[in-house]
């Protein structure tokens, strides 16, 4: 694993990437998400209540793909040791590149499928004991921790322990802003930039892993 500071930097970079992709997906899908499945679950319930079956099925498909991506992340990262993060990132980049190519081939539905799989997989990046250690594509738990750690600070605990969570949340918001702006200019071709960013982060993470001394 990387150092604590490097882990924070990596987490913020990936949270920004998730926000970027989710901004793209949210606009393209007219209010559904490609990385925020809590929102899609709420929308699914609303759509069922409204008997909007086509939209409900679309939301359910996105949720299913996300779960599949999360499982794929577990499979790819299993037993990889210090190399698991960059291998996961390389797989994520490959999925995003596949999505971008699909769009160029006039298959936007496949583009959406690929990026939802990539977002599910991303949550395996900081997996510990079979569970996601740091949430990268959803921020509810992060915001809860900000509130809790602020309360701890006011009671005499660590004064700045909430800052990393604030940075993680801010990175996702900033990514969503950028993703929305790029989508409005390039439509789903904006996924190319996400794929390039994922590949760059994978290269940096691989270099850091290879430089670590063998244990």
UniProtKB/TrEMBL annotation:
Membrane-spanning segments: 59-79, 86-105, 132-154, 166-184, 190-210
Database matches in InterPro entries: DUF1275
Keyword Transmembrane helix set for record: yes
Entry keyword set: Membrane, Transmembrane, Transmembrane helix
Keyword Ligase: no
PANTHER family, per the entry: SLR0142 PROTEIN, UPF0700 TRANSMEMBRANE PROTEIN YOAK
Descriptive protein name: DUF1275 domain-containing protein
Organism: Tardiphaga alba
Native organism taxonomy: Bacteria, Pseudomonadati, Pseudomonadota, Alphaproteobacteria, Hyphomicrobiales
């Amino acid at each position: 694993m990387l150092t604590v500071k490097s882990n924070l930097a990596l987490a913020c970079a990936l949270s920004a990437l998730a926000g970027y992709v989710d901004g793209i997906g949210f606009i393209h899908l007219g209010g559904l998400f490609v990385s925020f499945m809590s929102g899609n679950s709420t929308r699914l319930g609303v759509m069922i209540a409204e008997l909007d079956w086509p939209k409900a099925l679309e939301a359910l498909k996105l949720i299913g793909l996300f779960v599949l991506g999360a499982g794929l992340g577990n499979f790819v990262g299993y037993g990889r040791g210090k190399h698991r993060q960059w291998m996961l990132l390389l797989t994520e980049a490959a999925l995003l590149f596949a999505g971008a190519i699909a769009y160029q081939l006039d298959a936007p539905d496949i583009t959406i499928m690929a990026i939802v799989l990539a977002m599910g997989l991303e949550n395996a990046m900081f997996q510990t004991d079979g569970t996601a250690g740091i949430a990268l594509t959803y921020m509810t738990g992060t915001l809860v921790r900000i509130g809790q750690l602020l309360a701890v600070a006011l009671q005499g605990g660590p004064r700045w322990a909430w800052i990393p969570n604030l940075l993680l949340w801010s990175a996702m918001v900033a990514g969503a802003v950028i993703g929305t702006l790029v989508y409005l200019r390039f439509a789903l071709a904006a996924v190319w930039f996400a794929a390039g960013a994922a590949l760059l982060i994978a290269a940096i993470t691989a270099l850091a892993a290879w430089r670590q001394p063998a244990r």
